[in-house]
Design brief:
It contains 9 helices and 2 strands; from the N terminus they run H-H-H-H-H-H-E-E-H-H-H. It has 179 residues and is mainly α. The protein folds into 2 domains: 74 residues, no CATH class; 97 residues, no CATH class. The two termini are 29 Å apart.
Length: 179
């Protein structure tokens, strides 16, 4: 970010935003699914990097409130970014779009004999490879499906469905975190 900061006067805000998104946020997002369950004190360190990036885009002072800046950039905060990544992994596993070693570790709660009569039978449960503990806290991700998330054949259709799922999930997480 120091190198980007030195160039910020010679580029437009749009180019600056693109640079930060491609160079800083991708590094924050890399492997962040493994960060699920970390204490907030550890996640706050990552959030401070994201806040500094947002301030750099808008040339804002450190004393300015960060929430409006993140809202204008339409960036999720770090805990929501982790939830987003986990939800996309589980969605891909449950729809046959993930590597087999990940999909093998995922099973529906309804498939467990002792849990078939529970209301949570439509939830998805994961073991070892993807620790999706947040899905026990957030079962609505799977109950509140939009019409475009119905499964059907065809690679093009699957790509459209995945994009629709990501869009609706990000909107949901964004409205709940910035509300």
């Amino acid at each position: 970010m120091r190198q980007i900061r030195s160039k910020c006067r010679s580029v437009s805000q749009q180019v600056l935003r693109l640079l930060i998104t491609s160079l800083v946020l991708t590094r924050l997002d890399y492997g962040n699914a493994m960060l699920a369950g970390l204490p907030s004190s550890q996640l706050n360190r990552l959030q401070s990097v994201m806040n500094a990036a947002a301030r750099l885009v808008f040339s804002a002072r450190k004393s300015e409130h960060i929430t409006p800046l993140l809202h204008d950039l339409h960036w999720l905060q770090v805990p929501q970014r982790i939830e987003f990544k986990l939800a996309v992994h589980v969605y891909r596993c449950s729809h046959g779009m993930a590597p087999p070693y990940l999909a093998r570790e995922l099973h529906r709660v309804a498939d467990i004999d002792s849990r078939q009569r529970l209301r949570s039978r439509i939830d998805i449960c994961a073991r070892s490879a993807i620790d999706a503990s947040c899905y026990h806290r957030r079962p609505f991700l799977w109950r509140r499906r939009c019409a475009c998330m119905e499964h059907s054949a065809g690679r093009r259709h699957v790509i459209v469905i995945t994009a629709c799922f990501k869009r609706h999930l990000k909107t949901f997480l964004f409205t709940n975190s910035h509300a």
